[in-house]
Amino acid sequence: MTGNDTPVGFIGLGNIGAPMAKRLLDRPGGLVVCDMRAEAVEKFVARGAKAAATAAEVAEQAAVISIVVVNDEQVRSVVSGPDGILSTARPGTVVAVHSTISDETAVQLAEECASHGVEFVDAPISGGAGGAKEGNLAIMVGGTEAAYEKVREPFGHFAGLVVHAGEVGAGTRMKLARNLLHFVSFTAAAEAQRLAEAAGLDITDLGKVVRHSDAITGGAGAIMLRDTTAPVTEDDFWHSILTHVRGLGEKDLALALAVGDRLEVPLPFARLALQGLGTGLGVGPGDIAKEQA
Question: Is 50 among the catalytic positions?
Answer without folding.
Answer: no
